[in-house]
Structure to design on (504 residues):
């Protein structure tokens, strides 16, 4: 029997009704869509809820693409990938930053064990390098003996009353097959405390301060916080003639990082050159003179690894200090430009200067003390190397090359933080000139009372970067340089340094 199709009921769902006659109101349309999808979502959720105990959910967190970012966020991301990540690798290499901090592993106990053992290995390797440098008289830094050729040195002699035989009181000599002369028994290094022990103590003191500052107190984010603070006040794009931009900051920070890495590699190269100088290619200490070739090169390889860690400590301190100084320079230039253009209120300018003063105060804390310690060791190495260079009498190309590169290496890293700090203080001193001009010629609609308050504020702000607890200024650096040059010239002219017929 056939059924009447007219009497057949037609069942429609909510979604079909919504498709037939969508509501005109967008809010009602969204509510109808959610109500139509609710049963399906509920059934799908209950279906997977029963199997959730046997399922593994992997969540991947990825950065948003640059097209969805603001220009400032994109600039910060690029600066983090090009500057901060390589710098964090240096911190991890010397144990100032733990491993597995930004990554998830299924076995966190392994990372904890590595983070506990690795700093001990670093400290042990540093002490091994300090000791090795003393035993091998690294660099040959004795001004009296190491500036002369061994073949030209006449050992002191003494005649005994009972015989006509003369005996050497300083060192004995043996001949070699190639015709050169070398000591059979070289005395211990002279001036060990001032030449090797004090620089090692300064370096290890800087390492301990950095370990507490970065690893225990976790002040690693201070550099990134200052970077965010500066980027928010700069132009995102590269603009010519319109003040500093974020691109300029990234380029300057990359330059400091590149100079630090280049200095580290060049220092290792100079260290390796010491082993290949014919006059010095012998273990000079009696404790290492009887070692075989394989053991000698094994100890040398460990020493090179320790020197890599020592150089990384120096680079980590100097790059952090100079990077923060450079960002503060851009910060100060931005505020100065807005004051000169009179595009900022005096109250807002004072707030910006207060924030800058807080950043300078953090920079003048532990980081400034660490930089001061390494600068002392840099200065001592530069002075000793300069004296050895001008007094050198060894007519060997490798010796002259080593002496010249030694001075260049240490003086280059010595002047970098000093010049950067002096530039920062010179930039901040221009605010006083701007305040005086505003007091004379006026500023926007501000009254005399407001201008006097702004001038008094700048006089008491003290925006100065310090090293050795002393503000670094270009005048001080020039004065010290002139005094050193004239002192050396006077010593040469009076023949206190060098012979009277010396070329210098």
């Amino acid at each position: 029997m056939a059924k009447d199709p007219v009497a057949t009921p037609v069942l429609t769902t909510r979604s079909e009704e919504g498709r037939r006659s969508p509501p005109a109101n967008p809010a009602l349309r969204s509510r109808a869509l959610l109500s139509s999808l609710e049963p399906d979502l509920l059934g799908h959720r209950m279906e997977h809820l029963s199997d959730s105990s046997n399922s593994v959910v992997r969540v991947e967190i990825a950065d948003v693409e640059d097209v969805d970012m603001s220009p400032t966020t994109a600039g910060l991301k690029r600066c983090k990938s090009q500057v901060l990540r390589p710098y964090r690798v240096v911190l991890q290499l010397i144990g100032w930053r733990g491993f597995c901090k930004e990554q998830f592993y299924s076995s966190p106990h392994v990372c904890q064990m590595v983070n506990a053992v690795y700093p001990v290995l670093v400290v042990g390797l540093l002490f091994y390098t300090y000791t090795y440098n003393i035993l091998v008289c690294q660099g040959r830094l004795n001004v009296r003996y190491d500036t002369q050729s061994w073949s030209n040195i006449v050992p002191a002699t003494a005649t005994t009353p009972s015989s006509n035989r003369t005996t050497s009181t300083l060192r004995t000599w043996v001949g070699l097959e190639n015709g050169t002369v070398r000591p059979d028994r070289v005395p211990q290094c002279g001036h060990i405390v001032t030449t090797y022990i004090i620089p090692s103590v300064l370096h290890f003191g800087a390492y301990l301060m950095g370990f507490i500052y970065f690893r225990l107190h976790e002040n690693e984010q201070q550099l990134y916080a200052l970077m965010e603070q500066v980027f928010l006040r700069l132009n995102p794009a590269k603009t010519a003639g319109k003040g500093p931009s974020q691109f300029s900051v990234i380029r300057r920070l990359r330059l400091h990082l590149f100079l630090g890495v280049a200095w580290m590699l060049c220092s290792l190269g100079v260290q390796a050159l010491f082993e290949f100088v014919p006059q010095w290619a012998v273990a000079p200490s009696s404790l290492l003179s009887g070692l075989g070739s394989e053991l000698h090169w094994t100890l040398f390889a460990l020493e090179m690894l320790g020197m890599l860690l020592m150089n990384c400590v120096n680079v980590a301190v100097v790059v952090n200090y100079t990077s923060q100084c450079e960002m503060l320079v851009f910060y100060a230039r931005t505020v100065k430009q807005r004051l000169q253009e009179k595009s900022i209120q005096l109250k807002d300018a004072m707030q910006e200067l207060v924030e800058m003063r807080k950043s300078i105060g953090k920079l003048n804390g532990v980081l400034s003390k660490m930089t001061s310690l390494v600068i002392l060791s840099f200065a001592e190495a530069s002075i000793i190397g300069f004296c050895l260079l001008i007094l050198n009498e060894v007519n060997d190309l490798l010796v002259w090359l080593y002496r010249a590169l030694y001075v260049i290496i240490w003086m280059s890293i010595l002047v970098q933080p000093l010049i950067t700090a002096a530039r920062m203080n010179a930039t901040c001193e221009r605010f006083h000139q701007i305040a005086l001009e505003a007091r004379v010629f006026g500023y926007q609609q501000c009254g005399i009372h407001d201008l006097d308050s702004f001038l008094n504020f700048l006089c008491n702000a003290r925006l100065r970067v310090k090293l050795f607890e002393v503000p670094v200024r270009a005048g001080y650096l020039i004065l010290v340089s002139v005094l050193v040059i004239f002192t050396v010239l006077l010593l040469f002219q009076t023949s206190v340094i060098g012979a009277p017929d010396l070329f210098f």
User: Anything to note?
Assistant: The first helix runs from residue 14 to 20. Residues 1-21, 41-64, 153-187 have pLDDT under 50 and may be disordered.
